[in-house]
Specification:
By secondary structure, this protein is mostly beta strands. It folds into 2 domains: about 45 residues, no CATH class; about 210 residues, no CATH class. Helix content is about 15%, strand content about 40%. The strands form 3 sheets. Strands 5, 6, 7, 8, 9, 10, 11 and 12 form an 8-stranded mixed β-sheet that branches. Strands 1-2 form a two-stranded antiparallel sheet. A two-stranded antiparallel sheet has the order 3-4.
Length: about 250
């Protein structure tokens, strides 16, 4: 059953602010004021947006470019596919800017005799946490051009676009980032050790930004089947695309 939309009054302009159960931060589509739903008070963290560069017709250029590139795609993909849907969605992210330092000790077992190794792993990240709880969006594959972000301005949002609200608060986003970075560091350490016997990670938080980014969700049809393509509206770059099996080109 679909979630029923509710609304509160914007404390800035008095207009109704729509939100769905589970959302905790909402933005007024009339004045752009961002509110914490539970308290009704103003959202006090930086809220930015990446401007979208494409309209409903212009987005077809990067779609066709993706279809025509790459040797894994059927040769007639661009010619015989049909675009069925073009939906622009502004997705909410927390951008967690941190310095992560990990001290580790492990055992290297790929040689004889085994070797005990110690070291440090130091990285800086603008770690992305999607502010939606249920989603299969490929966050790790999304390279957001942060240098293009500007203060959130509702006037920059297209009338046909959908803006999703956050379901993840700041503290939860920071904890998610910590867990994901730890998992990432453990993966990186597999290059140096086969078994980790001591692992200590420290995070130094530099900044957290609440950011809406424009993503085009494209559905296209090729020889009777439907596939999805995700395109970054700020750059035109492909985030992820479903490619028909090579056998489709032989039918």
């Amino acid at each position: 059953m679909a979630a029923v939309a509710q609304n509160i009054k914007c404390s800035h302009c008095g207009a109704p602010v729509d939100f769905k159960p589970g959302e905790i931060v909402a933005t007024c589509k009339y004045c752009g004021f961002t509110t914490v739903i539970q308290t009704g008070v103003a959202f006090t963290f930086e809220h930015s947006v990446l401007p979208n560069r494409f309209d409903l017709m212009q987005i077809e250029a990067p779609i066709k470019a993706w279809m025509q590139s790459g040797f894994l795609k059927p040769g007639d993909l661009a010619k015989k596919s049909k675009i069925k849907q073009k939906n622009l969605v502004y997705l909410p992210f927390w951008v967690v800017s941190v310095e992560a330092k990990t001290a580790y000790k492990g055992i290297f077992e790929r040689i004889t005799p085994v070797v005990v190794k110690e070291g440090k792993l130091e990285k800086e990240y603008n770690w992305l946490v999607l502010a939606r709880k249920a989603s299969d969006f490929p966050t790790r594959e999304y390279q957001i051009p942060l240098e293009g972000k500007v203060p959130y301005d509702f006037r920059k949002i297209e009338s046909f676009a959908k803006v999703l609200n956050s379901e993840v608060d700041r503290d939860s986003a920071l904890e998610l980032a910590r867990t994901q970075i730890e998992t990432h560091h453990r993966f990186l350490l597999q290059q140096d050790v086969d078994k980790i016997i001591d692992f200590r990670m420290e995070l130094s938080l530099k900044q957290m930004v609440y950011l809406h980014t424009p993503v085009w969700f494209i559905n296209y049809e090729y020889k009777g089947q439907t596939f999805q393509l995700l395109i970054d509206g700020a750059t035109g770059n492909t985030i992820k695309g479903d490619i028909p099996s090579p056998k489709f080109g032989l039918l």
